[in-house]
Amino acid sequence: MSSLGCQTKPPSFFTYHATLLSQNLSPPALKPVESKVMVHINSVRHTSVHKSSRRRVQHQLEEPTESSILLSSNEQSGTAGVFKPDDIKIRDRPRRTLVLLFAIVFLQVCGEQLIEAPRTRIVESIFCYRFYEKYDPSKILHGRDTVAAGAVNGVDESWCKVDAIQSDMANLASYQQIFDSLMSLLLALPFGMAADKFGRKPFLISGFVSSLARWVWYEYVCWFWQQQSIYWTLLSSLNGLFAGSTTVLYNLIFVVVSDVTPQEEQTNAFFRLGAASLFPLLLIPPLSAWSMRVSPWLPSSAGLLFLLVALFLAMFVPETLKNQEHDPHEAQDIINTSPACNECLMETGTEYPQTQPCTPNREQITDDSSVYEDSWLQQTKNFVFKYWTLMIILLPYTEHLLISGTSQLQVQFLSRRLGFTISQATLFFSLRAGCSILLFLVVLPRLSTYMTREQRWSTQVKDLYLARVSIFLQAAGWTGTGMATNTLFVAVSMTVSTLGSGTALFLRSLAASLVPSSRLATLFSVISVIDIVGSMLGAPILAAAFGWGMRHGTFWVGMPFDLIGLWSVICGGLLFTVKTH
């Protein structure tokens, strides 16, 4: 049975021993360094009593302070003093690391967005040119000797919308998604475990390198399309051999953010990271569309430049695993057994007695270094299935990536139900992105801060309650979208579903507080696997539901979104089995 520990700030070493001395109590056995400090304190007290009164003022001035005691103890142990001017810079490093990560994510998503639309157009041009070269050469505007790279000016775009060409494009995209997903499923957990053992930075750098190499290869194949098949682009999925895929890369970024952020600030840091990934969705699409009028290679090449800059900045991200090494004696120094501690305990089912120790956060699951000797499959089983509280918390991730991949389905739904054009339907995506940015930057951070600072809620309880509210808002929004019959109803329903988009971030923060910091990469790799499995299993179900809806009338076209709402209700109901006391 796993429990979520409360957040209690242990007293400082000097406050702790001062309390014992005032109550005539003996302190417990001290560590070697602490023993030296206490000996030093006693010796100073003893000598000061026997000094003459005429030197009492001088001895008061020389009476050791907390800094001097620490300095003396450090000198005895051969280390430097505690405080240095550089300590201010050290305290600022986590903040600088966060800002650097936000900038990297922004540049990375900008690069991917700049590449995405031009890539689709270039692939369409290649399929289109080869189709009409075979079936109707009269549509070809330039021969192979004069056609531009990627055949972008070979055939007028209006002729490229026939079913055969679009079907070939859909098949290529589906194969690409399958290979990408397989790489993630096979390698996400091994990469996560390796990042927990060897460090975050090597795998972070390899992730950005492989992401850049993936798109360089893709554009290379498209540029030299006359010498090779467009299906050679599928080899870009091999980038997963070096990083586990883009999904794993972004999960590793979340790990680094967790490493450098205190738990009470972790959720807000996740919100800012989410906002950094959403801003490009507002800024880049119109810029990409405008530059594509000149050539799709212009934004595509600019995207590679953005990815290169993101890789360059990633070189400056410090290693954060060493900051999270756990001292096995840390939890044994001071244990709070007061009844007040139990007010912030959270568990599933069993009530703990009032004497239940309140262990530090992220140490609820014992971090046994020998676990790495087991196979990764056995380790995963021990890591997840033994702690079924985690299973409940991670279950909603089965629809996280699935919802993100329903954009094409939403366009088809709006076109069929309300008669929108594709350009009109995409306006709703801008509406959702704008609402999400406002939610992540303003609403949720302020609400989160209010609950923890003003209402004194523990971070874990706050995350759990907000996750419950968010997932039911998500359920209401998607169900309303599926049942909407007019534009206003659709807009309101999509806005409500957006209000629930913080569910995944709340649950990520909550899950991270349940495991040792040295296991965060493994945890987030499990999340990425759940994401991928949910998407692979859910996408065919939603597609089948949409087809069933079209066969049974316009009203049932929204059935896929009703299913998403139903699954959200089920996951939200299970979250209520995680109880607070």
Automatic annotation (TrEMBL):
Domain of life: Eukaryota
Stretches assigned to coiled coil: none
Compartmental location: Membrane
Keywords: Membrane, Transmembrane, Transmembrane helix
Primary location: membrane
Residues spanning the membrane: 202-218, 230-257, 269-291, 297-317, 387-405, 425-444, 465-481, 487-508, 520-549, 555-578
Keyword Membrane among UniProt keywords: yes
GO terms of molecular function: transmembrane transporter activity
Record GO cellular component, one term: membrane
Membrane topology according to the record: Multi-pass membrane protein
Protein name: MFS general substrate transporter
